[in-house]
Amino acid sequence: MALKEQITENHNEFLESLRHRFMDEDRKAALQRFEKAGFPTKKDEEYKYTSLKEITEKAYNFFPKENHNITKEQLDSLHLGEENFDWITFVNGKLHKELSKVSIENVEFLSFNYALNDEKHRDVFEKYFNTIAADKSAFTNLNQAYCKYGFFLKVPKNVVIEKPIHIFYISQNQEENTFYNTRNLLIVEEGAKVEIIESHHNFDSTYVLTNSVTEIFTYPNAKADWHKLQNDNDTSYLIDNTFARQEKDSLTTVNTFSFGGKLVRNNLDFIHNGSNINSFMNGITIIGKDQLVDHHTAVHHNFPNCESYQNYKGIFNGKSHGVFNGKVFVDKIAQKTNAYQQNNNVLLSEGAIIDTKPQLEIFADDVKCSHGCTVGQLNEDALFYLRARGISKKEAQALLLYAFANDAMQNIDIEPLKEKISKLLAEKLEVDIEF
After folding, report:
1. Domain named SUF system FeS cluster assembly SufBD N-terminal: which ranges (predicted)?
2. Which of 113, 182, 276, 315 has the fewest CB atoms found within 10 Å of its own CB?
3. From CA 62, how far away is CA 31, in angstroms rounded?
4. 72 membership: H or E segment, kind and range
5. What is the domain partition of the chain in residue ranges?
């Protein structure tokens, strides 16, 4: 049975499995919207270069088994050496406190499922939940219909969380292909600060499809950083939808590092709701074989005196396929906007493909907006320079590629994360680099 038929067939059973009922009608409405639109195909402009048939023609289990046998060694291998971090571990959708380390205080942190059942958080959910993700796509509607797993975090006014928080989503011990709809809600109130690292890991040979939706609300003078570390195995599919709404004088960063997974689609949407806002989006993609990574970004400049920066680097080998579609919208009242967008790519084989399309829609006249993209191979003069100094061709190529990708992670201020990304870059490029 194809996925779309399973979605409709399993929904009533899914609703019956939930204890919280106040969202039932909204879930049913979201499912109806999904059924009406169906999954996007290559006939849809937003999916022109990305076929989802490999995902949608498989059958999945909608009710993952909760039991697992994750070992300490397996968990340790996922960490960044972050002894001073906090971390939250979800296994097969369930939050496991015994596998987590939580020392954060003066904040509201709950698993998404628990928060839905907690009456005192009902008003918060009604105020924030699905207000910026509502009806954006077939996948956001599908997530609203089926969301259960994930977390809710509210950082109160002027609270600075000093330790980064690493969120692990792990799937293990599943005998069938498994479908997860994860949901994250982050609220960073005025003057507050928080840094999140998110990673997904499939330990089985069966396929995992994760349809994730994250909503980030950053209030005046607040700072929210979200780092996505995507390095899963070849039986993993990830559709990630992240929405960030910023108020005046705030700063929000979303960094996306895509090194693994069979098919990854990242949809990133920034909405400016005030002046003097700064938004940063950086990405590094290194893939090979027949992997596909698709980045779709959008920044909505709705107020004056705001800045946004997009810097995406891609390295593609084998028969891999990369897609970048970046949009910047500047409203007529958004004078003094400064928007920068750049996508640079290197193809290492004849079978690799990149489709890149930076876009600007500007309705204001006093702005500084630039965009550009490059697609090419390594600089032969630089390669010759290194080889003339006794460096092998393979190592010289890797060093040039490392330097090419490195500037997309310059604004990471979490040292263990920066070191982890550097090591993954070195591993993917098969070169020894001292850190």
Report:
1. 9-167
2. 276
3. 15
4. helix 72-78
5. 3-429
Return the closest-CA partner of residue 236 out of 272, 205, 278, 257. 205
Strand partners for 228: 198, 256
CA dist list (Å): 42 to 167, 171, 359: 33, 29, 19
What letter does residue 266 receive in the DSSP assignment? Answer: E
Of the candidates 417, 302, 309, the residue with the CA atom closest to the CA atom of residue 361: 302
Nearest-CA neighbor of 194 among 251, 269, 270? 251
Q: Which tokens is 375 given? A: 């697609």
3-class SS of residue 408: helix
> What distance in Å separates the CA atoms of residue 194 and residue 188, rounded to the nearest whole number?
8
d(CA 79, CA 197): 11
Confidence of residue 83 (pLDDT cuts 50, 70, 90): confident
Q: Are 274 and 220 in contact (CB under 8 A)?
A: yes
The tokens for 261 are 């997974």
Alpha-carbon distance 285 to 71, whole Å?
29
User: What pLDDT, in 10s, does the model give residues 356-398?
Assistant: 999 999 999 999 999 888 988 777 766 665 677 777 777 777 7
Percentages of the chain per state (helix, strand, coil), in multiples of 5: 25, 40, 35
Residue with tokens 């928060």: 115
